[in-house]
Records
---
Amino acid sequence: MEVTRLNFGEIIPELENDITSSHFLAIDGEFTGLHTGQDFNAFDTPQQYYAKLRSGGMDFLLVQLGLCTFRYNKDTGQFTHKAYNFYVFPRPFSRSAPDPRFLCQSSSLDFLVSQGFDFNKLFKEGIPYLTEAEEKKLREQLEEKQKARANSSSSKNEDSSASIPIPEEHTELIEDVCVRINDFLSNDEQDELILDGYNGFVRKLIYQTVGERFDSRSMHVETRAIDNHNRALVVTRALSDEDRKKKEEERQEQEKKELDTAVGVSSVIRMISQSGKLIIGHNMLLDICHILHQFCTPLPESYSEFKELVTFMFPRILDTKYMSCMDPFKDQISSTVLGHLHKTLSGEPFELVNVAPAVEGRGYASAEEKAHEAGYDAYLTGVCFLTLANYLGSLEEPAKKPVLPNSPLLRPYINRLHLMRVQDVTFIDLTGEDAEPPRDHVFHVTFPKEWKTYDLTQLFSPFGSVYVSWLTEASAYVGLHRRDQAQLVLNTLTQSDTYSVERYTEHVKRIKQTQRQCRCHRSSHSSQIYSPRATSQQRKKRSLEVQLTSTVQPLSSSYNSARKRSRSFGDIEPIPEEETEAEDSKSGKGTVAAVAGGLAKVKRKKGKQGATAMFLAAANISTGKRKQEFEECDSWE
Amino acid sequence: MEVTRLNFGEIIPELENDITSSHFLAIDGEFTGLHTGQDFNAFDTPQQYYAKLRSGGMDFLLVQLGLCTFRYNKDTGQFTHKAYNFYVFPRPFSRSAPDPRFLCQSSSLDFLVSQGFDFNKLFKEGIPYLTEAEEKKLREQLEEKQKARANSSSSKNEDSSASIPIPEEHTELIEDVCVRINDFLSNDEQDELILDGYNGFVRKLIYQTVGERFDSRSMHVETRAIDNHNRALVVTRALSDEDRKKKEEERQEQEKKELDTAVGVSSVIRMISQSGKLIIGHNMLLDICHILHQFCTPLPESYSEFKELVTFMFPRILDTKYMSCMDPFKDQISSTVLGHLHKTLSGEPFELVNVAPAVEGRGYASAEEKAHEAGYDAYLTGVCFLTLANYLGSLEEPAKKPVLPNSPLLRPYINRLHLMRVQDVTFIDLTGEDAEPPRDHVFHVTFPKEWKTYDLTQLFSPFGSVYVSWLTEASAYVGLHRRDQAQLVLNTLTQSDTYSVERYTEHVKRIKQTQRQCRCHRSSHSSQIYSPRATSQQRKKRSLEVQLTSTVQPLSSSYNSARKRSRSFGDIEPIPEEETEAEDSKSGKGTVAAVAGGLAKVKRKKGKQGATAMFLAAANISTGKRKQEFEECDSWE
């Protein structure tokens, strides 16, 4: 079902119940953009990948959150689902509320609108959100404001000595306004007098003059926005003390309600977090990052803090993209694009799990084509997960069906996030050290800046075909398809005047050294790729780590299985017919994109170190009750 | 009338005719946002203002361009108008086309949608655009691509030696595909065979195998996007040489047409520029900046290059906001907000000029309320301009009516752009040195970071009320309302342990010195405010300056009139009742906004110096015919 700010309040109790009683959840997001530029490199380490994602992608907005709850009925042996599509838009609810700026990628908006996404509904009826820090800040500000109001009503005009002299050209106007106010006060015809059409300076003069000439016990002046853009002064008759008090109470009530409403989607994320349920996503790194960054706390610079943050908020997640790239699925699934995966799982040897809507009108049928509606994609992801899980069960002796979310069979896939566009199955291991994907067959090559991909493939042609991943206009990583040729390359392609070839690992080591040197004088040209681990807040973190390791079971690396699949490529170099276009964008060396729309790189404010630790410490309180529920849930199989 | 990409091609001839036969044009833009943050300072110099605008505002998108053409009919003595609303959106027309990223401000989108702006129409039917540099680049790329196609059709499989070994897990799949292709080729039932559901690596393997096993004269394989996101291989039977040639010609024709269409709105701007007509706008600095940046060439870092660029593209512009802030209007117009201005000009002593639509359905009636539709605002601006101009004529002896765009009475207002939020009437003088607004009454004050506005007003209270303009959490500019007290401040508020007070001019001088020192080692903390004048391309520029000065008449500074109005404020400090909110945002010191949506600061690529000069040199050719037309037009009064 569609959820906007018009029905958000209504559905909350139902949603809360659905989440609590579910056996697992699936999520998906739609975004205003994906990449700020051609940033990722096919041989990025997980840490480099995270740093790039954080600096390049978090300024797009998650505009639709799909949530699908799945519930298993023991009696029927069937799963049912309920799907929610939240429209998300940070419409500022007051002048002091955050007014976020966010980035859009033209092709992404074009894609969404071509899929029927309703942007008018988004901007009109989207549900707002606040991070915990924003909410706290706003609550404090509101309290101060209300206090200030209480004080100001008792004291008035304390600094009339410092009033602005009225410029000659405005005296007539000011006198005229005073006459109008007098007229207004001397008869009861109107409830209020609107003084519109004056700029801020004139409004200030009027305000000042009124304070000097009129009795504040008989009248009240306030500023009001009259058509979103313009502000007018509004004069009303003074209220009795009792009426004034009542009005103030109503106003405070209204302000509190506004703020509660403004928490919006963030409260859904908090609910999901508190539930501790297994969360399924397809290629979900970007979704997870956006959800944390937008609704919880800005993504930390430190990669290890990021891992802590994810596992703290979502202790059990499973990425169906990662799962379907691994044994025993990888040989049977030729494309892990969600739609393709679903199609493949609909045929032999798989048995697609049928998941009916729990309630008419609150879900989907598999046959429906609503691809790229976040709720539908979440639903499809959940169905794929169940089908994959049951396949694992079918391989057991005796066969096991259904395989439920807490089955040990799922352990190798839990808390691992697939990395797109990186060679070999590379993933973020949220609860351990990342496995190092094989890079023995990869070389860092420098060459004249006139060289194109063709020159590199020629250079390496004695060793078979290669994968070229550009770094700068005069350097690239080159990966061999025939990995057994690596030593031969090092024996043959020694340094020349034209080019240089070195092992990938040596190059990475050298960069790390340079970066360590640079860090001392923080020169502006140092790359952001290797984010130095934040050293602050160590104490808080250590205590958190203890909590974290006690909740989340560390898993032994299943890297061996990834190693076997050494010749599969997540995203490979284009086929010749596609190459022309890719070549274009290479030879353009980014200038077209840069010229085009002002390629945006977003700087973050300094001084956020330790923000994550603070968030975790604060969040810890509100998610305190989770562990218990999680254990209860553990016992349902 | 609304113009989208559906009717854009059709209306071009009519539009061209309207522009050429018009007597002046009015423009207005709607944007996805205005400010990246609380950047502007009330005492910015025009150069500082430009630097901030350029670095902070140009990443928003102009999404609607309003153009209103005004034509005077000598026989009737009446003006008529025609209004166009162009929806503007840079939908990438191909994979190699620019895919701009742009910024949105939540409150701006909220505002637009509340005014009925249709974002679905924008993203679906918006008209694209290309700067001249982008267009040139794309034309070159297209030519290269077409050449590459011509070459590749003759030579095939030249590097099959470097083919990728097919991994074991894919052999069955590849064999299966070959069988399907054989089947397809051996009967005529289908026109094409779509091989869908394979990832890029598998597609590459298929492509490679097909090249090895099948005769390229009997079949053709290409990649096609099948649902915007996914790509499939499409196999077709080979064509006869003649058919192939014909198909290639059609394809080239189609590609050229696509590129022509992609120039879109930029061609309208070029038309306007070539016409050399007087262009009216209300508070038009932002409009002019966006139009140049988005449709012509990225705004130059150098302020003087910016002025050259504007006057070159639009040799005569008039800002009704500036005009109505100046003599003889300033005393009679208490708010220069467009709606207020229009209302004021509808009453005595003004005589609102009635401008009927030239054609039914192509314009507005004054009574209509379509505020913030760009075309309507442009129309209203033109009407205000005519009314202001006629008022000038009415003061002449004998009275002159109508006052037409080339009247000498308008000279004091030509090519001056009003600066919002800056104290005193501060403006950019496009064709001369900027006048320095009075700053004798302004002081740079430093103080403990705990201080708030109240502490500053207390400190200065002996000298009357003050205007406080924050710089950092521990410094601010403080302006006296009673400017005659300036010397007294310097005599009284000498340095103390707690605070320091120095003249505005001294502080600015000091900053400039520091900046000159910093420039040597380009440390990252140096502020961008004082953009150093670009020194490159001096030769080109000098030759341009000669051209420019011969076209545009330099105007003697009319600064004296601005000086007289020394006590008027463009944007003033809030009145007490409004202060709470302002104080909130001060005490927040930007953190809420920064946390909120990832406050975006956009870095520009280096190496653009001289881009403006290059643009001007190139544009010079295409606008070569302008001067003559401009002179012809001069003779119509």
---
Amino acid sequence: MISAEFVGPHVVENEKKIVMLIMDGLGGLPAKDGKTALEYAKTPNLDALAADGAVGLIQPVGPGVAPGSGPAHFALFGYDPITTDIGRGALAATGIGFDLKQGDVAARINFCTVDENGAVTDRRAGRIATELNAKLCEKLGGISLEGVELFVRPVKDHRAVVVFRGPGLEAEVCDTDPQDIGVPPHPVTATEPGSERTAELARAFLAQAAERLKTEHPANMILLRGFAPHPVLPSFEQAYKLKAAAIAVYPDYKGMARICGMDIRETGTEEADEIATLEKDWNDFDFFYVHIKKTDSYGEDGNFDGKVHVIEVVDELMPRITALKPDFLIVTGDHSTPALYKAHSWHPVPVLTWGPWVRPDTATSFGERACEAGALGLFPSSELMMMALGHTQKLVKYGA
Amino acid sequence: MISAEFVGPHVVENEKKIVMLIMDGLGGLPAKDGKTALEYAKTPNLDALAADGAVGLIQPVGPGVAPGSGPAHFALFGYDPITTDIGRGALAATGIGFDLKQGDVAARINFCTVDENGAVTDRRAGRIATELNAKLCEKLGGISLEGVELFVRPVKDHRAVVVFRGPGLEAEVCDTDPQDIGVPPHPVTATEPGSERTAELARAFLAQAAERLKTEHPANMILLRGFAPHPVLPSFEQAYKLKAAAIAVYPDYKGMARICGMDIRETGTEEADEIATLEKDWNDFDFFYVHIKKTDSYGEDGNFDGKVHVIEVVDELMPRITALKPDFLIVTGDHSTPALYKAHSWHPVPVLTWGPWVRPDTATSFGERACEAGALGLFPSSELMMMALGHTQKLVKYGA
């Protein structure tokens, strides 16, 4: 009942609209004047929404667990983040719009640099330009492997994706990325007998890739990571009867949204572009996932002021969102990325809900400490979608 | 994932140190000036930690459930307190350092007094001295039973333990303690066919014990309670990769810690002795369970002032703990024992967490009411260990 897998029979369709605005890595730790970035930022619009709405704290996976973007997002989308284990390869492939099919195995490619002994000297090949990446992917796409179709596609910078398509492929294969320099890539190893065929193909692919890239510089080799099959998930349409749009700049987030059956909308690179897309698409969907990346990027860089600035930029855009009159608005993050910690952390994430049927609580601002005392309490991220359905009258009365 | 059974693969070892300070039965009810013992006690050091850290309330087993020490402690240690059912016999045996083996069945012995008709007149034989207990155990240890080895060991006062070792023993056998006086002990009954052999041995043991004790006074008989097999639990090392030390005065708590694979440290009988042991052992372990018994004892005696005093004694010792610079410090109880109620109760227990990566909340003192509004909210005791692992960076990021 409280997750995407089981809610289907209890959902009715209506015209009401939900907006889920995700500031990636929103939660923080006090680092300036005893305040977190969200507390420090000037956010008159978010504070007004908090005063008028209800706030709380969400826990993406569980107490003490710092989540990756995948589990954190699938929890926001209402799926169990522990059983919903989606490999990075599948995320990357769907993220660039590749039409991954049942039976495919996808893996992420990192172009890298190796020395004459085959030891990795740069795991990212100096972060080569996406244009060079595309050219190299064409070279690798020419590789032919017996009995399977092969697709090699650029993602961004030094990241690409490979998809193996053919009968009998499973994805229990270890990464070749040694996560270190001065050592050679790991050999390709299947961890389950059913994945031996995939491992064999990956070995052949790597051998030919080494041959085709050996005269390139700095991207003279590749590493493979996150072998993954096509995920099997009920879509937003199946689970919630929602026509869902995703507005995101970065490929991974588009990929996660596509796996959930969302329509990936064209947008620009700035926060304001994303809101313009929301306005433009307003009449065509009833669920909008809007993803703001830079709160997380600045958090990971340890740039407290940068994170504060992005939050203030988003705050200034809020009136354009509320002007659309969403029936339920969620503002939160997928996880915490405190600038002080410079990484994803386990700290619960402030969440704000607003709409005509939200019962206002006593909170009058949006921040970690204000959310502690909010009416929503501390709860799993995966319950948010149920709250959204309830507040938009999309859930039938349970029992007579 | 969120319990000791599943966390293993997600844990990494590092140098960071965790202290779990348990004041047994800490939670209370208002009984003086409208305050609980914890609220009434002068605790400047704990209050400062609460101001600097984050607080909440923990629930040992579930709403409304007053737990015994066993489930309450196993929950603190991160094990599911409902599925982790460890019999009192096994606790008692491991508590005195007996090397319980797989296949053994242990039961607690209470020396008691019976009249000429065999009716129990004192279930504790006037709480005989431990020295007499030891002498009587030697007598009982001389009993020989066909096909099994028998071990009888004193615990404390009128409490001892018996261990049956041999093939084909199971532990589904009822207590003989009638929990009342003026009635004879219950007969030994197996509740499962597989435990018939154990019941038969216990009957033979009781018959011979009656014979050997009949001239003793007041301990002229024994009652058997809590038949239990060797428990099967992942140890702290297996579950958390933690080298764990237990600092406790009473045998049962040592027993529970030993079952979890903790190293039981020699210590004195006073609270200050326990902190001295913590200081002495600081470099040799990365997890310290420190158990303070008297908060519970005074609670059970209905001695509010006594409980207040113990809390104040512990408060004065806190600077010695924080001087060690633990990376994560937990101060809480295993359950509530309100002096007003004179027994273990179901009321949630105040919990304080403190350390460099704790996000401070708005609480400025440590007490039941202050903890209500804390950032940690109300949560199961069994989640504490996950929080400890997270805050000491011992959990790998979950998912990419």
---
Amino acid sequence: MIHFSNYYSLVSKEAEDEGVDDLYEKIRNEKESGKIGYYTIVERKQELLEAIEAYIKNNTLLKKGKIRNIVVIGIGGSSLGAKAIDRLLHNKKKSTAPDLYFLENCDPLNIRESLSNFHKKETIFIVISKSGTTIETTSIFKYIIKKYAIKLGDKKTKERLIVITDSGSPLSKFAKKYSIAEFNIPKNVGGRFSVLTHVGLVPLALAGFNIEKLIDGARAFENSFFAREQDHLLHKAIYLNKNYPVKRINVLFAYASLFTYFNDWFVQLWGESLGKKDIAGNSVGLTPVGLTGSVDQHSFLQLIMDGPKDKSVTFLKIENFESTTHIPDISLDFLESTDYVNNHLFSDLINAQCDATMESLIRQKDIPVDGICFDKLNHKNVGALIYYFELLTSAMGILFHISTYDQPGVELGKQILKEKFPGGNQ
Amino acid sequence: MIHFSNYYSLVSKEAEDEGVDDLYEKIRNEKESGKIGYYTIVERKQELLEAIEAYIKNNTLLKKGKIRNIVVIGIGGSSLGAKAIDRLLHNKKKSTAPDLYFLENCDPLNIRESLSNFHKKETIFIVISKSGTTIETTSIFKYIIKKYAIKLGDKKTKERLIVITDSGSPLSKFAKKYSIAEFNIPKNVGGRFSVLTHVGLVPLALAGFNIEKLIDGARAFENSFFAREQDHLLHKAIYLNKNYPVKRINVLFAYASLFTYFNDWFVQLWGESLGKKDIAGNSVGLTPVGLTGSVDQHSFLQLIMDGPKDKSVTFLKIENFESTTHIPDISLDFLESTDYVNNHLFSDLINAQCDATMESLIRQKDIPVDGICFDKLNHKNVGALIYYFELLTSAMGILFHISTYDQPGVELGKQILKEKFPGGNQ
């Protein structure tokens, strides 16, 4: 269960209800148009699960328990979602299942360090690229082919490789030629909205996560939202739109170290979806910032409190950490002033820090604050949270009159890159 | 060697020279006043080194090579600097030296996970807190005392514990009572400016880093700046000040995965120093964002390119990665369009991506872009980079007419936290 709270009205009472029904209808229309696939992908649970189950059943290496490492080669939307979930739910997955690793960057020091621990016999490599020609991904894939002397077409190789890409892409054609197992990304689901397609689900399933519950969580939020039980999302979107561009930075302040990569996933979703030219040609966009509590109370909080009032802050916390780890009842000479937390759970301290920081911002009365609280950290809540942020992003895109699901701004850099290599521009 | 480049004038020609001498004089005055200690701490190299050498010489556990882990218990300015350097220069330290670990957050899942690998016999714990009563730090320290059955006052315990704090603080008094080894932070050096004091140097030295070269690098930049050889820094500060608040977000886009924690260090330094009420009572501040290239080309770049023109972007790259890892000359069927990078070093690819992205932003003509390029990744350059950002922060603080070195905005949250626990407010 997730509890949502909102204190925006303490800052300004604008837009309490105005436009809520209209926004809801627009979101529903976008969903029902079928043009944007993430809305309904979770309704195809059986189909998604059956394809993965069939793959696992037919892979003899997996059946024999020989696989220790699932290595994802992918960048951006091809890695951030699974990486976030892997970090968040690591303690909740099957402990005997293989571990997940991610090769994203063409930093040579990083590639060597990351690959130093993998034995080919214990590893399945998953190459993920929507377009099929992402330069980081294909380059690292080539490096792996050479390093591990992978023979394409070889029977054993087929069990060691998986490709996830758009159907008909160059990478798909490559996979077909060498009979490599392939999963496709629905064409109408963009990379940063693809975590609950096979892009995220295949690596997570192979690594022992309960992907069914993830989907169930997202599905439950979908149903609830479209049954008008989550109108707080619409109010929030309308508020953020009406107060743009004064409040143009959105902070997600998550009180658990495990949310670090989830923050990265949020930053991509929000930044890349909403940083656009609108239909009138104006540059719009909200800048996402991911913080970890309480660590970033010692880093970024001062700026939020006393700096320009251009930020909204969403607090994210886990009510029950399901941990008994507590601060011992030890009183140290001269440090008695810290004893007030003795005998309390560490989780009580971090949650009290979250509440205290939230209150300190609310009292300012010029910082819009809202809260998202998990009862527990589990697959269902994480699935729901993903769907919540995807819906919120769609809502913002509709209000901004932008094309939420593309990323035209990154093409120029890719073009210039090719010009820097002989033969790159052919 | 570090090369600095700047393309701000393509966006606006404001403030080319005006105020440069004045700003320089103000910085020099601040340095010479002696009120702000980080400026000159690097001039006390011998004193800093000798204290650490004496400690190492007298610790029998270190001498016997029994220590495998140096565990820092500290948060914010007490950990971010050493953590950044540890990540950046890990391949450059003595390979036989102990590894560094950081316990920062009171997230119970994180504490248990982090402590699962340490054997007491192989570990030195360093407790760092400027005030001496940081609640996260003292709470984790108590947990460690209990978990490892540490007997305060015991002879062996003395060799396993180090305290780094302000002289006269409660933690200092505690250390003195139990004869625990203690290093002090100069009172006039704030936490986020303390990486080149014993706060950063002690853990780094124990973990086999060449702290002398770190200081030498910072010292060289200090000398060069005060000899007026680095006026680009003054120009940059004046530009950022004159263009505030239109350009109010500063992106540091570092093209190497190893810079991740350095970005965190920068975010604290910039955000906490500059997010302030100025002398007229106005809220000012620049919002820092740390990105990693090329990964975040697939995440945040779209927002920079097409979103609101409220950002400046500083690119950071390493000219020579000293790596021979290259993309093999393998042509994959249907993926021939990616072959233009074959046979090139991975470092050439990541650097070309940096250059291409930089050029794509410069061509926009409404995004201020500058570049920082290391010839190599080494201790001297990292030391210089730290001093560069510290000086730039001081310059901005002077121009904003703010109190750069305090953080009054975080006190309210600390007060509310205490109210949440019985006995907290005594």
---
Amino acid sequence: MELHQEITTLAAQLGAILTDKRLWITTAESCTGGGVSFALTNTPGSSHYIDRAFVTYSNQSKQDLLKVSETTLAQFGAVSEQTVREMAKGAIAASGADIAVSISGIAGPGGASKDKPVGLVWFTVQIYDEQWAFYRVFSGDRTQVRMQAIVLSIKKIIEKIK
Amino acid sequence: MELHQEITTLAAQLGAILTDKRLWITTAESCTGGGVSFALTNTPGSSHYIDRAFVTYSNQSKQDLLKVSETTLAQFGAVSEQTVREMAKGAIAASGADIAVSISGIAGPGGASKDKPVGLVWFTVQIYDEQWAFYRVFSGDRTQVRMQAIVLSIKKIIEKIK
């Protein structure tokens, strides 16, 4: 419950910064399924800084909508630094936004492999041409992993914009 | 921001039906900003029935991603039966899904006009080539309007699939 309040508060903070700086943002979301976009559009006036967002849950959709390369997906997998970097780049290209955040992870309970545990989430924040990629391994169930991923995305965007 | 218990329960019900019938779904969301997609992907195993979704907040994004015609937007506005019908059609075309739901409304507090009050939300549920368009005027604040729109979308999809 606290997490939810935290998300709307963070989204409103980010919204105020984006409005002030006249920046446009977009999201490219896999495991969060649109949760960051849903949070960002919770704030009144969000049409001044977000005009579209991409939920790319499958490999094919990452290729179709964000131009992630088939080779990258085959070689590194959907939950990888390489993929989230390409997702962010593709989201900016497909939207014209100044800022993108991409998220791809294993929310569970299924989907883990030897190298990639449940809770592993890769992110990229891109501002203009600069990218920051990072990952976390979150604890908790599917909902908790997704909520923590949404919180961290928004926090990191705020941190990098400043 | 929180996904009400009712939403997660409905999303799980719909997920079970989609899994059982081996149907794919997509969403084309304006005022809900990805909330339906976020709800649908809350259920474990959702990658078996949703592979992508479209958040089209601006008129331009509705044209770019969903091929809504500029004429339709100019003539009837983004919050109209004509627009949600084209959004659903475009979402199916851009995803290959069997089912789409499109949502466009005025969540408020701004954005109302003489003919279109805050709380007005238009929806289309499309299954294969068949469409059902409908609207509601919801009460409550921005969050409440969005939440009610998400609930009704999922309920209507369940009703029409059956």
